[in-house]
Amino acid sequence: MKFKGKVWKFGDNINTDEIIPARFLNTQDPQELGAHCMEDIDAGFSKKVSKGDIIVAGKNFGCGSSREHAQIAIKASGVSCVIAESFARIFYRNSINMGLPIIEIDDISQIKEGDYLEVELDKGEVLNLSEDKHYNVQVFPKFIQDIIKKGGLLKWVRRKRGKG
To answer: What's the domain count of the chain?
Structure first.
């Protein structure tokens, strides 16, 4: 899987309530959730983000409650993947289950808001096209890559069983 997009940069400890505020949890509609993604941190985020853009954040991204609304909101906003120094463990697993590509990079300090990145998930490569910097990242095992490519665990299982 290959992604190319503009960076939207956030700090450490971005929690699921900041990704999708609790007042919007009364819906499962992806478009509605995407329209409010990151709203309490950047009120105009969902209007500024373009399909394929990339969130880059610090440590412990996705901490807080384990709701899957956060991953749905991120994907529906148009974000192609999330890169962070680290992820909260439940968010990490929910991201795979929901088909949201995530990547850990030890140090994001050289990546700036507005940079353009190219990500090759299959190869474990991130290229900062704006700064001509290259990052090698850990490659997911093939079955996890397949889960992400299929759009999440349920879709992957349905395909495996011949029902989707």
So the answer is: 1
